Amino acid sequence: MAAAAPSTGNEPVIEADPELTNEESDSTLGDDVYHAYKDGSYVMPNDEAELDRLDVTHQKLRILLDDKLLLCPIRDPKRVLDVGTGTGIWAIEYGDDHPDTEIVGTDLSPTQPSWIPPNVKFEVDDCEEPWTFQEEFDVVHARYLAAAVKDWPRLTAQAFQFTKPGGYTEFQDYDLEYYSEDGTLGEERPNAVPISKWITTLLQASRDFQRDPCPGPKLEGWMRDAGFADVQATRYKIPIGPWPKDKHLEQRLTFSGPGNAQKTVGAWNLVQIEEGLEAFTLRLFTQTLGWRTEEVQVLLADVRKNLRDPKVHAQFDL
User: Fold this and answer.
1) Is the pLDDT of residue 168 over 60?
2) Is 124:110 a contact under the CB 8 Å cutoff?
3) Tens digit of pLDDT for each residue in 273-304?
4) Which of 2, 160, 177, 242 could join 172 in a cystine, given CB atoms 3.0 to 4.6 angstroms apart?
5) What are the strands of the beta sheet with 175-179, ordered from one edge?
6) How far, in Å, CA of 214 to CA of 237, rounded?
């Protein structure tokens, strides 16, 4: 399980690279397409741009987690459930690595490829509805469902119900509250006002939509309340942009075992945020908060500048 744990006060700080120069980049977004099944229950679209962003996020997490698909100490599970499988990339890669394991991936949309390993199958399903599987699983896996789930205690309870005795449930999810460790992000910083305004408003809009954007720090408690034993939580810092001082892949900043190159992780993270920036924002700001589309676009133009500014050292947690 990778869930955010409270800070101990002794965690290493990600240092900024003083030699970094800012290079302008562009991202283009077309018309968003949303889920037909349970439309309105999930704020993100499921168009080609969003599917590409999900695959970029998968790559980011593989780097962050030392190329591991699972952190729980299980060998050769017989049955694995991937909740909210998205493009199916995690299930497909796990199936390739474990040909004797049956993997079931569920999602609101059938956006997964048709060419898949024979031990992998996908089903259209809503993880917040009652689960109807005929058998339990050795592993229940779910990741980055932040701002997508209305009832987390119920979800963790259903995961517990369908995890075999001796099996594992692993959540890898975010605390999307942006912060900096060197004071470069905050409303008192003129060059960081747009990004601070945007993320504060976005998180509140998600909460108004009854979808928690910061489940990471609460997962440990929800899992214990659901009945899980031996719950372990690990916090990972994820920079936004290639600003960490980590040119030679030397900086290791996970808190249980070897970590990863934060500069590389930050670069991938910036790519996925920029690719999804408009999709993250438009539906919540216009439909939940009543903003005009033109207002949103003006704010996002300034947010993009903030994101690319090497003097703004923003990050969030997994």
Assistant:
1) yes
2) yes
3) 999 999 989 999 999 999 999 999 999 999 99
4) 2
5) 175-179, 315-317, 237-239
6) 14
